[in-house]
Amino acid sequence: MEFYTQLTYPKPLFQFSYQDPVLLLGSCFVENIGTRMTDLKFQTDVNPFGTLYNPASISHAIRRLIEPEPYREKDLFSANGLFHSFDHHSRFSALSVETCLDQINTRLDASACFFRRCHRLIITWGTSWVYRLKETGAIVGNCHKLPERSFVRQRLSVPDIVDDWKALLGELLHINPELKVLFTVSPIRHWKDGAHGNQLSKATLLLAIDELNQLFPEETAYFPSYEIMMDELRDYRFYADDMLHPSAQAIEYIWEQFVAHLVDAESQAVLKSCQEIQKAIAHKPFNPESEAYRQFILQTLLKIDRLNEKMTFFDYTKERNILKSKLK
């Protein structure tokens, strides 16, 4: 007897491995997945513009990575005592123009360089609603708490999204024919639009992705994070306190499905070793002064050394320092 609706997953046309540099862009859900990949030593770059939610802002960010023209003072504005960029999350905002531009352009240069050797791209769309700045008509990635009267709010149509991304994907694949793109839709509901409004927004994203998958059947795929949340994890115990965001348990479950279906077998074995090292570092001993704990730390350091012999590009400097500090 089955007590929940279980999804079926089509056989993936491509998978992820430790050999594949992966760029992740999109909503805060992509940061949850990206953080796990980074912690487990995948080659990643997560949201170089900060959290972005709509397809238009994410496509604009990718185009800036293709042609990384530095941001200048004219690209910033001042509000609430800080300088901001409409293309970036507030984590890049700063008290001075110089600091703001330095943060933005340093990350832009590094991410553009990473992007040129990227094998995989994970895109998570959160909403099809966008805000256009009345002054210029440009879609902004972040409103930075400016008054609502400064913007015009509209919902992108399926053709709007498909036309934009069809051109973008064509350009990306011309530059890098080996690139594979995985689309997801964020399982986080945008409740200020109401239940029906949220469904219309998500449906627009899903229809657009389906069209793009049909246009680029060998180069793109879809991972059903939204469907996992709505169907397999429909119980409210899988939600955070706001009843909108997935709980830590739900995010972990979706991550496990991602690994099981999209990470290749060899990398899954390496990933398991990385998780064991993570758990060992987080372990809190009953007696940190005991010889048994000292041997436990030495064995963990040995595991890191052996893994590094196999995966030479793994950087375990931080973890080694943490473990060695416990030997003193």
TrEMBL record:
This is GSCFA domain-containing protein. Its EC number is 3.1.-.-. The keyword Hydrolase applies. Keywords: Hydrolase. One of its GO terms (molecular function) is hydrolase activity. It comes from Parabacteroides absconsus. Residues 22-258 form the GSCFA domain. Pfam families: GSCFA. The keyword Coiled coil does not apply.
